[in-house]
C-alpha cells in the first residue's frame, strides 16, 4: 500500500512541476495558456475557450500590453466569451479559478478585500474588452466549419478505418493550438478549418477514399 501511495505522490509532484508558473512568466508569454487552463477548469466548451483567446488577441492588437494586467484581461475575455456563446460564467467562479491558477494550492477567496478587488478589476476589464471590440461579439467559429467538414468527409471512410485514425481529434487539437497565436486573426474561419483538417490527414498519413476519382487535382479538403 505504501508503494502505491509513493507512486501517486510522485505522479502528483510531476504533474505540479508541469504546471506553468504564471507569476514568474515574463509579460504575456503564458496568457493564452492561462485562458485555456482556466477555461477547462470552468468546464467551458472548446469553442468558447477559443473565442476567449480570439477576444484576447483582438484586444491587444489595439491596446498596449504594458497598460493592462494580463491575467485580469484573460479572465474578462473568458467571461465575455461565455456570454457571447450562451455559456455564462459566474463571476465568483471566474475569480476563484483565475486566482487559484496564479497562486497554486490556494483555496477559494473569502468575500473580503482581495476578492472584491479581483472582481471589480475583472468587471472593468470586461467593459474595456467590449468597448475595444465595438460591442461586436459575433465571431465566426472555425469549430463549426471543422465539425461540418469532418462529418462530410467521414461518410467517405469505412467505419473501422475512421475509428482507427483519430482524424477528428487531431484536427481539433491543431485548431485549438493555433488559437495561441495572434495570427489566428489573419485568416477566415472556413480556411482555418480546412487547413487543420488537411494537416491532420497529412500527419496521420490518411488518404481519403475515392479522392483519386476527382477530376480536379486539388480536393476541397486540401485547398
What does this structure look like?
The longest helix is centred in the middle third of the chain and has 20 residues, at 113-132. It contains 10 helices and no strands. 29% of the residues are buried. It has helices at residues 2-18, 31-41, 46-62, 70-84, 91-102, 113-132, 142-154, 159-164, 167-178, 189-204. The chain is 62% helix and 0% strand. It has 2 domains: 2-132, Cyclin-like (Cyclin A, domain 1); 142-222, no CATH class. The protein is elongated, with a radius of gyration of 21 Å. The model is unreliable at 1-15 (pLDDT under 50). With 223 residues, it is mainly α.
Write a short abstract of this structure.
The chain has helices at 2-18, 31-41, 46-62, 70-84, 91-102, 113-132, 142-154, 159-164, 167-178, 189-204.
SSE topology string: HHHHHHHHHH
Question: Any idea what the CATH architecture of the largest domain is?
Answer: Orthogonal Bundle
Number of helices: 10
Query: The biggest beta sheet, please?
Result: none
Radius of gyration: 21 Å
Output the structural class.
mainly alpha
CATH topology of the largest domain: Cyclin A, domain 1
Number of strands: 0
Average predicted local confidence, pLDDT: 83
Q: What's the number of structural domains?
A: 2
Rounded to the nearest angstrom, the distance between the terminal CA atoms is 56 Å
The poorly predicted ranges are 1-15
Amino acid at each position: 500500500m505504501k508503494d502505491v501511495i509513493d507512486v501517486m505522490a510522485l505522479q502528483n509532484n510531476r504533474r505540479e512541476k508541469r504546471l506553468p508558473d504564471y507569476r514568474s512568466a515574463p509579460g504575456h508569454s503564458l496568457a493564452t495558456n492561462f485562458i485555456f487552463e482556466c477555461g477547462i477548469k470552468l468546464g467551458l466548451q472548446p469553442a468558447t475557450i477559443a473565442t476567449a483567446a480570439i477576444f484576447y488577441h483582438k484586444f491587444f492588437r489595439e491596446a498596449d500590453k504594458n497598460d493592462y494586467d494580463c491575467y485580469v484581461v484573460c479572465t474578462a475575455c473568458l467571461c465575455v466569451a461565455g456570454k457571447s456563446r450562451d455559456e455564462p460564467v459566474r463571476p465568483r467562479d471566474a475569480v476563484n479559478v483565475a486566482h487559484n491558477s496564479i497562486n497554486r494550492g490556494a483555496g477559494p477567496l473569502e468575500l473580503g478585500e482581495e476578492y472584491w478587488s479581483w472582481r471589480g478589476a475583472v468587471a472593468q476589464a470586461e467593459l474595456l474588452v467590449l468597448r475595444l471590440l465595438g460591442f461586436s461579439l459575433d465571431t465566426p467559429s472555425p469549430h463549426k466549419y471543422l465539425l461540418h467538414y469532418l462529418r462530410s468527409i467521414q461518410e467517405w471512410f469505412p467505419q473501422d478505418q475512421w475509428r482507427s485514425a483519430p482524424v477528428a481529434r487531431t484536427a481539433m487539437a491543431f485548431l485549438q493550438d493555433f488559437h495561441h497565436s495572434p495570427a489566428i486573426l489573419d485568416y477566415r474561419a472556413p480556411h482555418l478549418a480546412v487547413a487543420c483538417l488537411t494537416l491532420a490527414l497529412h500527419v496521420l498519413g490518411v488518404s481519403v477514399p475515392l479522392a483519386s476519382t476527382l477530376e480536379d487535382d486539388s480536393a476541397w479538403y486540401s485547398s
